[in-house]
């Protein structure tokens, strides 16, 4: 019993620590309040994946040589990873504000312009995906969450009949619930892209016999997978 209590205290302390760190680091971005219902283990896994991916993108931007695009794009990916970390926790952070939406909107425009200016088809497709991911994050932080509507005392829900003993549904009335088709399509897209990125990364490693591009592919795959999971958890 003592060991179990100590383990629970340690887990709670660690969770509170990561949320506190997110508040300090991401407060200028005013990250949106989270509404996900994920197990603590899943939140920790997503946090680790986003943190490692963001750290790699920062390293790539600092150490990489090339034009402005080679430095700005990884930094934008790092910011997106930072924003996604607190989304994985039920505690959430303060509501979204203009700076956060403006930054993610700028990332959307940046990747869309990069796709339009790309000379190679694969580069264009990659940037289109990045633009969609950034736009998806804008939508995730600004979309209104369904809130329970207060009902007057004695009021009955449409389609419900109560006689003081049980609650019955009128014939032809179906309960609402489940994930909307649009959200299911978005989640499916993110998960399919995750598989595609991992398969392409494995093929590149086999053909070039080098793992130089593997961290970037893993980072993008983690972001796509995490976005899909968050969509399902928020639905």
Shape: globular
Report the major sheet.
2 strands, antiparallel
Counting DSSP E segments of at least 2 residues, the number of strands comes to 2
Distance between the ends:
37 Å
DSSP strand (E) fraction?
A: under 5%
Structural class: mainly alpha
- Report the total helices: 7
Mean pLDDT: 75
| SSE series | HHHHHEEHH
Low-pLDDT residue intervals, each spanning 5 or more residues:
1-7, 19-34, 144-153, 157-162, 164-176
Rg result: 21 Å
Percent helix among the residues?
55-70%
Strand order of the largest sheet: 1-2
Characteristics:
235 residues; mainly alpha; two-stranded antiparallel ribbon; 7 helices; 68% helix; disordered N terminus
Explain what this protein looks like in three dimensions.
This protein is mainly alpha-helical and 235 residues long. It is built from seven helices and two strands; from the N terminus they run αααααββαα. It has helices at residues 2-26, 40-63, 69-87, 98-117, 121-142, 181-208, 214-234; strands at residues 160-162, 167-169.
Summarize this structure briefly.
The chain is an all-alpha fold and 235 residues long.
